[in-house]
Amino acid sequence: MLWRLAIVGFPFIVLLLIPGLMYGRSLISITRKIREEYKEAGSIAEQAISLVRTVYAFGSETKLIAKLSAALEGSMKLGVTV
């Protein structure tokens, strides 16, 4: 009796497993891309924090904010696709 239930249930498991694996792989690739985008934005922020006196002295805060916003734009677009 149990083997009949296994025969009936096995195709449904396969039908659920294959799309789940495909979705998981696509989610992993998008997550890697988002991580790379955040790494770029993090390096810009790290430079700005370490050189805060220079940034303030030359009055380039707006330039730095624009650069950081542009770096975060890519991760935001990828985050919307998730």
Automatic annotation (TrEMBL):
<keyword id="KW-1133">Transmembrane helix</keyword>
<dbReference type="InterPro" id="IPR036640">
    <property type="entry name" value="ABC1_TM_sf"/>
</dbReference>
<keyword id="KW-0677">Repeat</keyword>
<keyword id="KW-0472">Membrane</keyword>
<dbReference type="GO" id="GO:0016020">
    <property type="term" value="C:membrane"/>
</dbReference>
<dbReference type="GO" id="GO:0005524">
    <property type="term" value="F:ATP binding"/>
</dbReference>
<keyword id="KW-0812">Transmembrane</keyword>
<feature type="transmembrane region" description="Helical">
    <location>
        <begin position="6"/>
        <end position="24"/>
    </location>
</feature>
<dbReference type="Pfam" id="PF00664">
    <property type="entry name" value="ABC_membrane"/>
</dbReference>
<feature type="domain" description="ABC transmembrane type-1">
    <location>
        <begin position="1"/>
        <end position="82"/>
    </location>
</feature>
<protein>
    <recommendedName>
        <fullName>ABC transmembrane type-1 domain-containing protein</fullName>
    </recommendedName>
</protein>
<dbReference type="GO" id="GO:0140359">
    <property type="term" value="F:ABC-type transporter activity"/>
</dbReference>
<keyword id="KW-0813">Transport</keyword>
<comment type="similarity">
    <text>Belongs to the ABC transporter superfamily. ABCB family. Multidrug resistance exporter (TC 3.A.1.201) subfamily.</text>
</comment>
<dbReference type="InterPro" id="IPR011527">
    <property type="entry name" value="ABC1_TM_dom"/>
</dbReference>
<keyword id="KW-0325">Glycoprotein</keyword>
